């Protein structure tokens, strides 16, 4: 039986099934092992890992610890309670914005690639070009955030660094907008999101793309990228304090376990805390050379748990309302037995988005794709509801093929 326990409950003889730190690096070669000494427990605690999953069939038990199913059910209930806050109404339909969003994303990725190449050559960032891209991203978010947010989950492993920066910019702009921050602050945050990983230009590709676990020396090189990026941007004319702050501090954590300055929550600016949330969310939902990305809905629930220690809980909850309990692009199973992809949030209930249905799990066949508004009743284009989110790999389907219905 699998159970969730706090790191303070760990004892020699327990079997670690999962270190539950998908966004962090840890000092262990494996995620699953028997605890054989107190030193291993101290390493877990020192790494900032606050909870783990143990396998009671393979090691010592904790009688009053919740099972994984019980812990997940409790999290799901808390997450569902966040869904009542209205979302921002859309200006255009997804179909109207989708092709334009594809073009904007492609342009932005090309710009980030150029910025990285210039940084390797010691050149300053050309802010005029960056500003134009951020303005385009912001305009697309204002028209229909679902288009760019849905595209943000698509990342080629070879272009991850560039596409990650575009996604962080997109998500951060959407986050600022949902919090009703002023236009200039939102714009500056977008600049910071697009440029936050500029320092990775100085990290060797062999380290960035290494398929196995990094050595401690390699970790040290990677951990330098916020300061390296800060130094590059500081030498670039016109880059303001908000992008500089986001670049330097997007890896700081609420409990002081982050880097480069190990700042605690009171010392980290609100926008840097927002950037940290967005950065981790995008990173753990992406396929990398060394791990498989989580479904977006699962990632949000993990971040909700981690926010108790590593992120600002209130900001994490606001981010979840921003992208939706079932984010755009999420594969969901409906009560009718059909699979669907979420394409648009509802204006008043995040539990009843618009979805495009395309597959019957009962007959195990594709069906003619069409849109269902889960907020509507039977006979009015609705009459169904989400049972749970699903893994595309489980069903061997690509839900993003069905983001648009012809």
Automatic annotation (TrEMBL):
Gene3D superfamilies linked: Hypothetical protein af1432
UniProt xrefs under Pfam families: DUF3391 (PF11871), HD_5 (PF13487)
Coiled-coil residue spans: none
Domain HD-GYP: 139-335
Superkingdom: Bacteria
PANTHER family, A to Z: CYCLIC DI-GMP PHOSPHODIESTERASE PA4108, CYCLIC DI-GMP PHOSPHODIESTERASE PA4108-RELATED
Record protein name field: HD-GYP domain-containing protein
Source organism (scientific name): Telluria antibiotica
Lineage: Bacteria, Pseudomonadati, Pseudomonadota, Betaproteobacteria, Burkholderiales
């Amino acid at each position: 039986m699998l159970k969730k326990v706090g790191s303070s409950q760990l004892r020699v003889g327990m079997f670690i099934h999962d270190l539950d730190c998908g966004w962090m690096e840890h000092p262990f070669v494996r995620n699953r092992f028997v605890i054989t000494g107190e030193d291993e427990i101290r390493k877990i605690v020192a790494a900032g890992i606050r909870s783990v999953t143990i396998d009671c069939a393979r090691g010592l038990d904790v009688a009053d610890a919740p099972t994984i199913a019980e812990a997940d059910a409790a999290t799901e209930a808390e997450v569902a309670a966040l869904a009542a806050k209205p979302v921002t109404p859309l200006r255009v339909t997804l179909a109207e914005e989708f092709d334009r969003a594809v073009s904007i994303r492609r342009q932005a990725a090309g710009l980030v690639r150029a910025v990285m190449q210039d940084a390797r050559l010691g050149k300053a960032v050309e802010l005029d070009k960056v500003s134009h891209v951020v303005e385009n991203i912001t305009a697309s978010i204002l028209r229909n955030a679902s288009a760019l947010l849905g595209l943000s989950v698509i990342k080629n492993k070879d272009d991850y660094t560039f596409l990650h920066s575009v996604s962080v910019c997109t998500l951060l702009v959407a986050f600022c907008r949902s919090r009703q921050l002023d236009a200039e602050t939102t714009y500056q945050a977008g600049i910071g999101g697009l440029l936050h990983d500029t320092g990775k230009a100085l990290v060797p590709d062999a380290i960035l793309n290494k398929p196995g676990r990094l050595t401690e020396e390699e970790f040290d090189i990677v951990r330098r990228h916020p300061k390296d990026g800060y130094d590059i941007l500081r030498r670039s004319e016109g880059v303001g304090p908000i992008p500089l702050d986001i670049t330097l501090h997007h890896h700081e954590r609420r409990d002081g376990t982050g880097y480069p300055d190990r700042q605690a929550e009171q010392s980290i600016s609100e926008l840097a805390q927002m950037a940290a949330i967005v950065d981790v969310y995008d990173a753990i939902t992406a396929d990398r050379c060394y791990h498989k990305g989580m479904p977006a809905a699962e990632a949000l629930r993990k971040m909700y748990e981690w926010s108790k220690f590593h992120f600002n809980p209130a900001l994490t909850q606001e981010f979840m309302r921003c992208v939706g309990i079932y984010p755009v692009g999420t594969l969901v199973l409906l009560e009718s037995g059909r699979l669907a992809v979420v394409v648009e949030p509802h204006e008043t209930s995040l539990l009843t988005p618009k979805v495009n249905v395309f597959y019957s799990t009962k007959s195990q066949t594709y069906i003619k794709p069409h849109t269902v508004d889960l907020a509507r009743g039977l006979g009015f284009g609705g009459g169904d509801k989400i049972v749970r989110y699903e893994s595309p790999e489980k069903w061997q389907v690509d839900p993003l093929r069905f983001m648009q219905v012809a």
